[in-house]
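So, could you explain the following?
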Amino acid sequence: MLVAQAFASSEAFQGRALDPDLIERILGQLVKETRDIYFIGMPGAGKTGAARRLAHYIGRPFVDLDDAFEVAFGICASEFIKAHGEDAFRARETEILRDVSKGQGLVAACGGGVVVREENLDLLRQNGYIVMLDRPLEELSMKDRPVSVAKGIETIAEERMGLYRGWADLEIKCTGSAEGDALLVREILDL
């Protein structure tokens, strides 16, 4: 609405008609600059590295939800899960996501299990574009991943892959490096 008002004011000020497509181009640019970009995918897929590099390349703030969890609760995600269980962790992870999703124009790496709580989809979608990183299961890192160790990576993939794909606005096959993944996302999204 404000863009349309500015457009009308500009026409009045200049005393001439402007191209009406200008409104859509400006709106598109504003959306591109203010929309959050969220990385989802299997634990160990490389979401943090790719999101961090993308944020650097396009000059946006970066948030890792697991790091934000540790700052907020004073304990890392893996230790919290070991001490309190996955359900307690997921509830608190949603609290963190609720706060993070209020930002504008950030790039965020979500935990691999963010998709197990349906309410998280609304939080990601309110101002976000969701990118799924798809890495072959045999290449996933298991370091500091208690849920992956407890359930097994194949079981987690069976439970979550449909959700990742259903939530994603963009699905990319991992290129083999965080830098390559970030550059691919930047190119596809024209950032």
